[in-house]
Design goal:
The complex is a heterotrimer of chains A (102), B (638) and C (490). By secondary structure, chain B is mostly helical. Chain B has 28 helices and two strands. In chain B, helix 3 runs antiparallel to helix 4 and helix 12 packs antiparallel against helix 16. Chain B is globular and about 120 Å long. The longest helix of chain C is centred in the last third of the chain and has 32 residues. Classes of the chains: A mainly alpha (102), B mainly alpha (638), C mainly alpha (490). Chains in contact: A-B, B-C.
Chain lengths: 102, 638, 490
């Protein structure tokens, strides 16, 4: 069980869940969480490849750390956007944010 | 021009004579337009110099051996060389003199006639333009230069006919004159192009030489001769482009005098004479010209028989006399046509100038009205007009008699007697309508005479006016007297003129007077025409209703100019405006613009349709993005 | 001559650009100063262009005043200006129209700075196209001259100005969209890696098929700007919408840009394509001549009438180009010049009338000759020039074109000549309805053209009359280019 494919499978599952969440959730918070899922899936992949394939043990982990940092920054910006959207629309439902409709 | 142009008196005179009026035109238009007196002085001075030059040229070249030609470069394009120059031969010298004399007299006369008109300076500017165009045209060495100044003559008459531009009918008449003559000129131009392309040269002397027959096929010559004759039809108001000329009476009367005697309409006949040998290369074309001349002459005579407008009568008579000239030329007698052109210039100018005095005095164009108001009281104009009318009718020993006899002689030489019969009929009608007018003014009918007596006091008022304008009256009277003298005397110069003109043209035979009976018949017919006019209009208690006017449909037909104008109007309204103009405009709006706007709308509509994709649903966009990326990935990996 | 090496052509361009820059640095509200500055700079360009016209050595011929600097070596782009018999009349025309147009707009009060700045930009582009001998620069200058038209019409125009401006811009950009592929096609297929027109026009550079293909692209592309039927409908609308001096530049110069482009690019580079498509060109040109005259007959707006007369007259240019003869080329180039001056005069007269009466509908006008004889006089003279009265400039051009057209295409030539009658009819009709007739009380208080505003019109009249009386001054210059060009044809 302790093979590369297990981890890759889990990561793919997580990523798919994230994609599904982004497409399906109408709440901006929900979409943000789904994006976090996708990022974590990417982190798992990095770690798994690092563990099983790469001779140099550092690189993958550094990338995972980077992704965490980016996720934190992204969450901060996204949340502030969401707050701004909420102030304007009194809602965080994505269907309400349609001002650019053609 | 050669460098020694100032040493050659002939060239100097030709240049001065032909170009000074243009200088005067420019000077007046640019500088002296606000000063009527100065403008008139400039114009009259320049035409006087031209007159002196023309007479000098004529007298110094009375025994001309060879035509004198000067030419300088005007324009060179590729292999085409367009010169500007002067051709002095018998015909052009004669024409130059006629134009200068008549223009001079008309300008002097206008000093009186146009006095006080707000457009006085403009009038003289246009007169100068007219004189310049006509004189330079007369001595043009090539047909292209001829055509150019021919067009300018048309322009000048457009400006002068429409001189009283505030009157709708005047501006309409000017436009009509320009457009109708333009229609003829197009044919003229096409004919010239045909000659240019096939003969390679438009030099007058070359076109008149026998080379033409060698270089062009007979069919081509006939075609180009017919086309070039289109110009004559337009300018000289021949059938079917008659109707602009009577309308052109809307211009000031001196302009009519100029237009009808020596310039605009004479230009057409002059052009016929100018390249007469070229025309005579084609017998069939000449037959067509003869027919056109005859039809014109008869049609115009009939129209002149019913009108009440004094100027209209002379206008129709001009058309009919031009028809006579064309007949004479087309019958092969170069001299007869040119001689009639010369004499006609004199007496027709006289007729118009006399009428001008009447119109100026009574401020009406209606001859009955003039008679009623005592027209015969104006002695000098009345006498002069009677002389001129007699000359027009061909009464012996006046100038018109000699020239008309020459034409009749030429017609009598034709195989087909119908032309002679038509000519004699025309002579009869001419005498009838001219003296109809004279008798109407001279002997107003009885009832109207009472009218006249009542207006005695009024008439003396006119006398007072006349006295007041005595100076002006005499300015107007002197040209009349000079022209009347010319009319009386000119006929006796037939032989010298003939020697002068035909001396160099032995080839073109002239109709000799081999028919001793002919003058008697012609004169007899003229006298009987006058007699008929006297019976109907002159004698005491005459009804003053012509025999034609008794039959209403005929009168209407004649008065409406055989409905030619109606035809043109309909043609213009329905074909030009109704079909072409309308159709093309609609095509522009609907089809072309519609098509373009349609493309634009389709673009906008397409954008609108595509904009539905921009639903604003972020998640759909994301889904599409993901799908596309997935497809791209699939494409690259597999 | 000590001036021999002075870059006159660049000086013309530079005076436009410097004029533009100087105007940009003048404060918005110093209106008189802006006008004087534009007058001075446009005066400099006019003097320079007149000097060039007369300084050109006709006995030597060929390209003179050459300025050639390599700009981008890898693509063979040169900054290459030169004067020959074809573009000298055009430079002269542009100089005259710019100067007179500036004077005509002397009364402008609305956004003066932007107006003159854009005008200079436009004219810089026009000069650039006329003097450049490098395809790349021709295209760049061409688009530079198109761009300012939109704001110039949309801001200062009248009568459906947004529609007119938009239509014009779209049409002309569509033209550019045809020209650019044509130029690139030629560049790629020449194999010489150069945009230099002189190098590209060597015989044998392009195969006959390439010439035919490129010619039709370039002809249609430039032809749109030249008002070739049936791509003409932008021009009347655009003329009507544009303000006076822009109409003058637009009809007087910009339409010539298209015809000149056809000559300089399409005909110079693809002479075999030219001969191949000449039949089609003649058909379209004849259609334009006849069609323009008839449509003009039905118009009620003064500016529309002039617009359609332009279509008709530009048809004459097209017909001249289509004949493939020396006379035809001479006539076409002369007609470009003559028509430019004539329309400029027409538009400036109408502009004066419109500014005063606030209408250009013919039925509402009438009797203007009594109130403003001088303004009417200018219009009537220009109209007479338009209907081909001899001794005015356009007569000679039409004469040459018609002679050569009649020689090459008898039927089409005759049809075009017949259109002259219709042309005369519609011009005289306009003159009659607008200027003749009873004095119009509505406009009785309007003053006639004052002396200052009369100057530009007088200059135009003088040009028309002088070149009408002495056509050889112009033709001798044009011939220097056209005779060798035609005789060098394969």
């Amino acid at each position: 069980m302790n093979s590369l494919y297990t981890y890759l499978f889990i990561a793919a599952l997580l990523f798919s869940l994230g994609i599904f969440g982004v497409f399906q959730r109408r709440s901006l918070i929900g979409m943000l969480i789904a994006i976090e899922l996708m990022l974590n899936a990417a982190s798992i992949n990095f770690m798994a490849f690092n563990r099983f394939l790469a001779p140099d043990p550092i690189v993958g982990q550094i990338y995972a750390l980077f992704i965490m940092g980016i996720a934190a920054a992204e969450a901060a910006i996204a949340l502030s956007i969401i707050v701004a959207v909420f102030r304007r629309l009194r809602s965080i439902n994505i269907e309400r944010a349609q001002e650019l409709r053609g | 021009m050669t460098s020694s142009w100032f040493q050659d008196p002939t060239l100097l005179a030709a240049m001065l004579g032909a170009l000074l009026p243009f200088v005067s035109f420019v000077l007046i238009m640019v500088f002296t337009r606000p000063y009527p007196k100065v403008s008139a002085a400039i114009s009259v001075a320049s035409i006087s110099v031209s007159l002196v030059c023309a007479i000098f040229l004529l007298s110094s070249h009375w025994h001309l051996e060879h035509p004198i030609q000067y030419a300088g470069k005007w324009l060179i394009s590729g292999e085409m060389y367009i010169p500007f120059g002067f051709l002095l031969d018998e015909l052009s010298l004669l024409m130059l003199t006629i134009v200068a004399v008549i223009s001079f007299l008309v300008q002097v006369y206008s000093l009186g006639y146009m006095a006080g008109d707000p457009g006085f300076a403009r009038y003289y500017a246009f007169q100068s333009l007219f004189a310049w165009a006509m004189m330079t045209m007369s001595i043009a060495p090539t047909m292209l230069q001829f055509y150019i100044f021919w067009e300018l003559v048309g322009l000048a008459s457009y400006l002068l006919i429409g001189f009283y531009y505030e009157k709708f009918s005047a501006s309409e008449a000017g436009k009509k004159a320009f457009v109708m003559t333009r229609a003829g000129d197009i044919a003229f131009f096409l004919g010239l192009l045909l000659v240019l392309l096939n003969f390679g040269n438009l030099n007058v002397l070359d076109m008149n030489s026998v080379d033409v027959t060698a270089r062009m096929s007979p069919g081509l010559i006939t075609l180009s001769a017919l086309l070039v004759f289109g110009g004559v039809i337009g300018k000289s108001a021949q059938f079917p482009l008659i109707t602009w000329l009577p309308d052109a009476m809307e211009g000031p009367t001196p302009v009519s005098a100029l237009l009808h005697s020596a310039t605009m309409v004479a230009a057409g006949v002059y052009m016929f004479a100018r390249i007469f040998p070229f025309y005579s290369n084609s017998a069939s074309a000449m037959a067509v010209f003869l027919a056109i001349g005859t039809i014109t002459m008869l049609l115009a005579s009939t129209m002149a028989m019913v009108t009440r407008d004094i100027k209209q009568v002379w206008a129709y008579s001009t058309v009919s006399q031009l028809g006579f000239m064309v007949m004479g030329l087309a019958a092969g007698s170069y001299f007869a046509g040119v001689f009639h052109l010369t004499t006609h210039a004199g007496f027709k100018a006289l007729l118009f100038l006399c009428s001008g005095v009447f119109i100026h005095e009574y401020e009406t164009n209606d001859m009955f009205e003039m008679g009623r108001q005592g027209g015969r009281g104006l002695k000098i104009p009345m006498v002069c007009m009677t002389i001129a009318a007699a000359a027009l009718s061909g009464i012996p020993f006046l100038s018109g008699y000699f020239s008309k006899e020459a034409i009749m002689g030429a017609l009598a030489n034709m195989h087909n007697p119908i032309w002679l019969v038509a000519g004699l009929l025309g002579a009869f009608l001419t005498a009838y309508y001219s003296f109809r007018l004279i008798f109407i003014i001279l002997f107003p009918s009885k009832i109207e005479k009472v009218h006249h007596a009542e207006h005695g006091g009024h008439a003396s008022g006119h006398g007072h006016d006349a006295h007041h304008h005595a100076g002006l009256y005499w300015v107007m009277a002197w040209p009349l007297i000079i022209l009347a003298t010319v009319t009386v005397v000119l006929g006796f110069f037939q032989t010298p003129l003939e020697n002068f003109l035909v001396g160099g043209h032995h080839g073109s035979g002239h109709g000799g007077g081999h028919h001793a009976w002919l003058p008697w018949v012609a004169v007899g017919l003229a006298v009987s025409g006058i007699g008929l006019a006297f019976l109907e209009f002159g004698r005491k208690g005459a009804s003053q209703v012509g025999f034609v006017e008794r039959v209403e449909p005929v009168r209407a037909l004649f008065a409406e100019r055989w409905y030619m104008d109606h035809f043109y109007r309909l043609f213009l309204d329905y074909v030009i405006y109704g079909i072409f103009s309308n159709l093309f405009t609609r095509n522009d709006r609907r089809v072309i613009d519609g098509g373009i706007d349609g493309i634009c709308r389709a673009t906008v509509g397409g954008g609108w349709l595509l904009s539905f994709l921009q639903s604003g649903m972020l998640q759909y966009n994301l889904m599409v993005m993901f799908a596309v990326l997935a497809l791209v990935a699939l494409y690259f990996f597999f | 001559m000590e001036f021999a090496n002075f870059p006159f052509l660049s000086a013309i361009l530079l005076s436009c650009v410097v004029g533009l820059l100087v105007i940009l640095f003048i404060p918005e509200d110093r209106k008189m100063l802006i006008k004087w500055v534009s007058l001075i700079f446009s005066g400099i360009t006019m003097v320079l262009s007149i000097y060039l016209f007369f300084a050109y050595d006709k006995s030597q011929g060929g390209l003179q005043f050459v300025e050639k600097v390599l700009w981008v070596e890898s693509m063979g782009i040169y900054y290459f200006n030169a004067a020959d018999g074809f573009n000298l009349p055009m430079l002269l025309l542009t100089g005259i129209v710019l100067f007179t147009g500036t004077l005509t707009m002397w009364e402008l009060e609305n956004r003066v700075k932007e107006f003159f700045a854009l005008t200079f930009l436009l004219v810089a582009g026009v000069f650039g196209v006329f003097m450049s001998m490098d395809l790349f620069f021709i295209f760049v200058w061409y688009d530079v001259s198109l761009f300012p038209m939109y704001p110039l019409i949309a801001i200062w125009g009248s009568t459906r100005k947004e529609y007119g401006a938009m239509k014009l811009t779209l049409y002309l950009l569509a033209g550019s969209a045809l020209i650019l592929p044509g130029i690139i096609y030629l560049f790629v297929n020449s194999g010489l890696n150069t945009f230099d027109v002189v190098a590209l026009m060597q015989p044998g550079t392009f195969t006959p098929f390439q010439q035919k293909f490129a010619f039709i692209l370039l002809y249609l592309g430039f032809g749109i700007l030249a008002g070739v039927w049936p791509f003409h409908t932008w021009s009347p609308v655009g003329h009507v919408a544009a303000p006076t001096s822009v109409s003058m530049i637009h009809a007087g110069v910009l339409m010539k840009l298209g015809a000149f482009g056809v000559l300089r690019v399409a005909i110079f580079l693809c002479p075999e394509g030219w001969q191949y498509w000449a039949q089609l060109m003649a058909v379209l040109a004849t259609c334009g001549i006849v069609y323009g005259a008839f449509v003009g007959l039905a118009q009620t707006d003064l500016k529309y009438v002039i617009g359609y007369s332009s279509v008709s007259h530009m048809g004459i240019v097209g017909l001249g180009l289509a004949t493939v003869t020396v006379d035809g080329l001479n006539g076409a180039v002369f007609q470009m010049f003559a028509h430019g001056v004539m329309t400029a005069l027409l538009f400036s007269s109408v502009g004066y009338i419109y500014d005063r009466t606030h209408t250009k509908m013919i039925p509402e006008l009438g009797g203007l000759s009594r109130t403003m004889p001088i303004a009417s006089g200018y219009f009537i003279l220009a109209a007479l020039a338009g209907i081909g009265v001899p001794c005015l400039a356009s007569f000679w051009a039409e004469l040459l074109v018609f002679i050569s057209a009649f020689k090459t295409y008898p039927i089409r030539g005759a049809l075009a000549i017949f259109a002259l009658v219709v042309g005369a009819l519609f011009m005289l009709r306009v003159v009659q309805r607008t200027f003749y007739g009873e004095k119009n009380e509505k406009f009785a208080h309007i003053p006639d053209v004052p002396f200052g505003l009369g100057i530009p019109r007088m200059i135009l009249v003088a040009v028309i009359v002088l070149f009408g009386l002495f056509p050889s001054v112009m033709l001798d210059v044009i011939q220097v280019a056209s005779i060798p060009f035609i005789s060098g044809l394969p």
